[in-house]
Structures are given as structure tokens and as C-alpha cells.
Amino acid sequence: MAPRWPSAATHRDAVHAMRPEAGDAAWELYDLVLADLARRPGTVIGATEVLRPDGVRAPLEAPPLVRLGRLLDPHLCRGD
What's the DSSP call for residue 55? Predict the structure, then answer.
């Protein structure tokens, strides 16, 4: 999962794209995933970061899909 982080930090427009009308759905997905992760052993959810089971602290200061990319291994995307 770590190799994606530097690219997202330095090339966010190339790594993360979302249409404005998808914002509500992205936040809804974020809320659902975060609630699921909260029930999993080894995950600690704080106000500004999540401690993942692998010991990595994932900050929560970004748009919802960027946050999810820091928390999950699979890519969250839909190709048209």
C-alpha cells in the first residue's frame, strides 16, 4: 500500500480524480468503510488519523477517496 502514498502526495491530480457531483456518495462510502474498519481488530480511529493494523498512521485531512486510499489496499475507482 505504501508505494501509492508518495504519488498521491506529489501528484494528487494524477492519482485522485472525482467529479463534483460524486462528493456526497464519496463521503457516504467513507463513512461506511470507516464504520467497518472500527470493528476490525488492530484498527484505532482517532479524530485526525487512523492507526492501521500494520502500524501505519494514516492522516485524515484529505478528500474522502484519498483518505480511503490510505486505509485500504484496493483501488477505489470506476472506469467509464
Answer: S
Q: Where residue 19 falls among pLDDT bands split at 50, 70, 90?
A: confident
Residue 29 three-state SS: helix
Cα distance between residue 49 and residue 55, in whole Å: 12
pLDDT digits (tens, 9 = 90+) for 42-68: 999 999 999 999 898 999 998 898 899
Burial of 67 (0-12, 13-18, 19+ CB in 10 A): buried
In this structure, are residues 14 and 4 in contact, taking their beta carbons and an 8 Å threshold? no
Instruction: Give the span between the Cα atoms of 8 and 77, in whole angstroms.
Output: 15
